[in-house]
Amino acid sequence: MTTHFFGDTGVLTARTLRHVMRSADTIITTVITPIAMMLMFVYVFGGAIDAGPGRYIDYMLPGILLITIASGISYTAYRLFTDMKSGIFERFQSMPIARPGVLWAHVFTSLAANLISLVVVVGVALVMGFRSGAGVLEWLAVAGILLLFTLALTWIAVIPGLSAGSVEGAGAFSYPLIFLPFVSSAFVPTKTMPGPVRAFAEHQPVTSIVNTIRDLFAQRPVGGDIWVALAWCVGILVVAYVFAMVVYRRKIA
């Protein structure tokens, strides 16, 4: 049964990846927004923002990486919505394949597509002056956190992808996720914010994730932020996965 699941998921993932590769404009669209924000904040606002010693691009890149992921997962919801409306799910139900494999194929495709987008954004950041003395282990830790964050947001994307009534509705859920880093430590220190805003910023998931990635890049001790970041990511992932599977079972029942 396990071999059956992995085999079916592999075939379905290859199918979804082919669709992404045939429409490379989705990758381009995903990276345009974060790259534009990076250019604007570094070259327009950067000189007026006091984020402490060091280059501003080094300070704000972790937030841009999270925005890149939030932009990318909207296409996961779109692809799922398109499959639902095309009747492909009903066709798969009549075939001897593992039913969860259909969803996992979209999830793995999301991870692959977002990985490409993140590499592109980091490449542009390097051209803009981003530098890190982080070693292999620190980069692997950053990659692991970004992967876990992508996985959590992707399962959130599955829910509107299955249940939305329109293309616009399927993708609209990502807008709050894209703007969440702006009310965090991603672009300015939270100590500069007024009381209620600061309280929210310091206790929402993006701040702990951004602080952890920033410390890893700078080779500073990560402290307790890494455990808070992991707890947020795992918690969101578990809740989103459970709700997504409930919606999926209702849709294919």
UniProtKB/TrEMBL annotation:
| Superkingdom to which the source organism belongs | Bacteria
Q: Which UniProt keywords apply?
A: Antibiotic resistance, Cell membrane, Membrane, Transmembrane, Transmembrane helix, Transport
In which compartments does the protein localize? Cell membrane; Membrane
State whether keyword Mitochondrion applies.
no
Q: Which InterPro entries match?
A: ABC2_TM (IPR013525), ABC2_TM_bact-type (IPR047817), ABC_2_transport (IPR000412), Nod_factor_ABC_transporter (IPR051784)
Q: Which Pfam families match?
A: ABC2_membrane
Primary localisation category: membrane
- How is the protein disposed in the membrane? Multi-pass membrane protein
The transmembrane residues are: 27-49, 61-81, 102-127, 139-158, 170-188, 226-248
* PANTHER family, per the entry: NODULATION PROTEIN J
Similarity section: Belongs to the ABC-2 integral membrane protein family.
Q: Specify the protein name.
A: Transport permease protein
- The organism named in the record is Amycolatopsis pigmentata
